[in-house]
Design goal:
The protein contains four helices and no strands. With 90 residues, the chain is mainly alpha-helical. The longest helix is centred in the last third of the chain and has 21 residues. It is elongated. The protein starts with a helix and ends with a helix. 0% of the residues are buried.
Length: 90
Amino acid sequence: MADFKKLRRNLPSPPTAAEAPANLQAPETAPADGRSTRATGRTHQLATRVRADFYDELRLYAARNRLKLVEVLEQAFEALKERESQKSSR
């Protein structure tokens, strides 16, 4: 087990209120990590079984176009909805 008493002895004393910088009055902001900057809003998991040939084609298409599998599915669903709305408006 670590001896924290020895570690505390090596720490400097905390600054006084006069020495503390003005940022103590500023609101706290958490540093942005890489995950939050890449957040996509996709929070629900979708698991399904597909044929091997469909899966291979889907992966190849996504790789060729530098897309995620979910992005390919989202684009395909949007195209399907668009096509159906065009059919119904005829």
